[in-house]
Amino acid sequence: MHRTFTFVIAVFAALHVSAQTIYNTNYGNINFLQANKIHKVGTNGSAAGNKTLYTNVITISGQNIDCIVTTVSLTAGTFTLPGSAASGTIPFDYSSSTGTAMSSNADRYFAPTFNFNSGGGNAKFRFEFILGGSYNNSTNTGTAVILQNVQVNTYDIDGNGGSNSNQYNEFGGFSAVTLSTGTNITATYNSATDLTKYRSNTNNNTTSVTDDANRISVKYTYVSQFEIVVGADGSGAAYYFIDFGGGPAWSGATTVTNAPLVDLDPNTEGINYTASACKSEAALTAGSTNLVQTSGTVDSILYEFTATDIIDGNFEALIPKGSAAADTLKLGFAANASQTFTFGGNSITVDKIVAGDIRKLKIYKTNGTAFTAAQAETLIDSIVYRNSKTAPSNGVRTLTIIISQGAFKSAGASSLVTISCSTLPVNWISFTGKNQENAIRLNWTVAAEHNVKEYTIQHSSNGSNWTDAGVVAASSNNSSTNNYSFNHLRFIQGANHYRIAEKDLDGTIQYSKVIVVNSGSQETLRVYPNPATGGTLTIQMPSADFLQIYNASGNLMVKKQLEAGTQQINISALSKGIYFIKAGNASIRVVIK
Q1: Which residues contact residue 318 at a Cβ distance below 8 angstroms, ignoring those fewer than 6 apart?
Q2: What is the DSSP letter of 206?
Q3: CA distance readout (Å), 225 to 11, 147, 148, 192
Q4: pLDDT (tens digit, 0 to 9) for every residue of the chain, 593 residues total?
Q5: What is the 3-state secondary structure (H, E, C) of 86-138?
Q6: Cα distance between residue 405 and residue 407, in whole Å
Q7: Where does residue 326 fall: left (phi above 0), alpha (psi -120 to 50 degrees), or beta otherwise?
Q8: What CA–CA distance (Å, rounded) separates 516 from 269?
Q9: Same-domain pairing of 186 and 332
């Protein structure tokens, strides 16, 4: 006897709400029609790696939405048409209501059909929702969107009439699930897949595919892309139906179970939070109440991120407020490991987990007891992001937070931390020098100092070889504006080049721009526009007879003979970057950046 099985659905990716557009489906039908099916990679969707595009699966406020379906894997089975299959159909997504046991099928369902080997098998699919018409044939991707209020019905979770023929589905990331009251389907947590497993407790086969007792209805608050796994415990034919929509009315009483929820900002729509930082700590929540919404306890808290997001390695970390330095959860790890810290009087264990390009921090009580909802909320709200690198790499770090509770997991709530820093660890307002009678007076103003230890003043007679002239300690480390000065007594006659080496507490050094102060001469070099935005520079310097332009590596890029006064130099051949300009004559040389 054939069996009909239904889908295992798991939210697969973090929801970048701030970067993607949200479209509310209002639990409407999402249609996978044969007429709108295009095989983009592979010829029939039946091999791992095949990609199939469904166009116009739903239209919302005039905007068409498409869906990419990827066949991720197939284990211990083959795609096989049902008996008496309709002409022109394929098993990847059987589109007809004719054929053995297919009378309940609809063209808009996604309906793959299989024959599994002895002992059962499974297949995995990935669904990605994109803007209509945005599919790129070169990259096989599209412009991702988020669908709000999506409902998925799966049917026929029973047996096939034989011993140990129980059918099951596994889901993850849903907000609520509805079952018929008194159903013989029960939920457990599957640690191997990290999903909620719904399994039939009967071997009996029900001929009505949509019978209440064998139906599961799952709701997703937000979904962008997700994976589906379909499987069977035994061998033989296995037909699958997935109904993206409201489905038929329930004929009897139902029981609704809400999954736990993490809402990082309950004061705004959605379950996500955005923050920005440079070297300061960045909160990952809005700090309000009801971040954790559950009527039960919390077994563990999971922080998940992509390894490629962590550009600065172990300089990037999550830090529970009030914890010791050893409790810092560094994010640059590349192997499984564990560490512990103490929070709220409890010993906390953190498992660092590597899963391909995904990194996970699983946080739980060391003694195995569960967090209360209040304890979980306090811990989540206490954890902040910090990047301790002297010059952090700009970009967005996405940290997805998930809580588990018995057989259930919450949907992922993403905190998006935007790193936006100036090139240097301090904001240089100005750096100037003035020739006095017995010294050259240097003055500089900075703002937004963070972890700065000191400023070393460096001097050069030629702009290439540098010696330390003195050190000035940093006066504070905050966002205020701070003024510094230094008198250089051992200057030379002619051009004196100066730069400042700013040293951080971790020993990292960054340099200021270079200025030139002339002793005994008022020669000045003017270059504009600076920064250069076109292909021409204007150079102005009295008594100049040469000009040289060097790149940041010290390579000579341009060399010209000049006449005193103002001239224009063509720089269109230079690539974007930092350059040093040296101009002057036999007795005076001036360098600017």
Answers
A1: 284, 303, 328, 329, 331, 361, 383, 384, 385, 386, 399
A2: P
A3: 7, 9, 12, 21
A4: 344 433 333 333 333 333 457 899 999 999 999 999 999 999 999 999 999 999 999 999 999 999 999 999 999 999 999 999 999 999 999 999 999 989 889 999 999 999 988 888 888 888 999 999 999 999 999 988 889 999 999 888 887 777 777 778 888 788 899 999 989 899 988 877 778 888 888 888 787 888 899 899 999 888 888 888 887 887 888 888 889 999 999 999 999 998 899 989 888 766 678 888 777 788 999 888 889 988 899 999 999 998 988 989 999 999 987 666 667 999 999 999 999 999 988 999 999 999 888 899 999 999 999 999 999 999 999 999 998 887 788 888 889 999 999 999 888 888 888 887 754 567 788 889 888 767 889 999 888 777 788 999 999 887 777 899 999 998 866 667 889 999 998 887 777 889 998 888 777 777 788 888 887 644 466 777 777 766 787 777 666 677 788 777 777 888 887 765 667 788 878 888 777 777 766 555 556 66
A5: CCCCCHHHCCCCCCCCCCCCCCCCECCEEEECCCCEEEEEEEEEEECCCCECC
A6: 6
A7: alpha
A8: 55
A9: no
Q: Are 471 and 456 in contact (CB under 8 A)?
A: yes
Tell me the backbone φ, ψ of residue 101, rounded to 5 degrees. Answer: 60, 25
Amino acid at 322: G
- The span from the CA of 169 to the CA of 199, in Å, is 6
List the Cα angle 290/28/188 in 5-degree steps.
55
- Domain count within the chain: 4
> Do 511 and 532 reside in the same domain of the chain?
no
CA proximity to 22, closest of 386, 229, 243, 272: 272
Can the peptide bond before residue 531 be classed as cis, meaning omega within 30 degrees of 0? yes
Q: Which domain holds residue 385?
A: 262-419
Q: Whole-angstrom Cα distance, residue 214 to residue 218?
A: 13
Q: What does the alpha-carbon distance between residue 590 and residue 517 come to, in Å, rounded to a whole number? A: 8
- Let me know whether 308 and 251 are in one domain: no
CATH number of the domain where residue 500 is located: 2.60.40.10
Neighbours of 22 (CB within 10 A): 15
Asked whether residue 164 falls in the same domain as residue 277, the answer is no
Asked if 270 and 250 sit in the same domain, the reply is no
